[in-house]
Amino acid sequence: MAIDESLWEKCAEFHGHKCGGLAIGFQAANYAKELLDLGFSADEEIVCITENDACGVDAIQVILGCSAGKGNLLFHIRGKQAFSFYNRKSGKSVRLVLNDKPADLPQGGSMDYYLQSEPKDLFTIKEAMPMPKEAKIFRSYKCAKCGETTAENWLRMVDGEFVCLDCITPYDRFNV
After folding, report:
1. Stated pTM of the model
2. What CATH number should be reported for the domain holding residue 152?
3. Are 56 and 98 in contact (CB under 8 A)?
4. φ and ψ at 160, to 5 degrees?
5. How many domains does the chain have?
6. Buried b (16+ CB within 10 A) or exposed e, 60-76
7. Does residue 79 share a domain with residue 17?
8. What is the largest CA-CA distance in the chain?
9. 11 and 97 together in one domain
10. Are 102 and 164 part of one and the same domain?
11. Any domain includes 132
12. What digits encode the pLDDT tens for the residues 57-112?
């Protein structure tokens, strides 16, 4: 399979180097584009839930336009090379789970293996979890303890005041 060299170079430039992990994300993003008829996400038309925070996530950002700031790159950290992709316009989704690489792969040969393999041979297609809701914008309030402004979904009410998660004292019935 021939890869888009200019797109691969763009991913490597964004990531900082070329590696097997980046190649995994490169192939996953391109396979998702093919399976779900995706382009580049200007807003939240495309969503990715990644189950890792490894190198491949950078390729997904470059190729599909998913980012944490836009709210369409979500992390469900499980330590798996697995990615769920969603096309909000069509309602279609797919979860791609990386298959084991060959045991006889030479040391340092992962990147070439991933780039030269067909995506259908690299990933098992599974059903994605339900499509996440669009990102919500929350009001912000100052924490009563540190004074830092915090989004309301990350605050707790303590003695009638908003307190951020960093300042909250954990409740423990055994160490009162």
Report:
1. 0.86
2. 3.30.60
3. no
4. 80, 10
5. 2
6. bbbbbbbeeebbbbeee
7. yes
8. 63
9. yes
10. no
11. no
12. 999 999 999 999 999 999 999 999 999 999 999 999 999 999 999 999 888 889 99
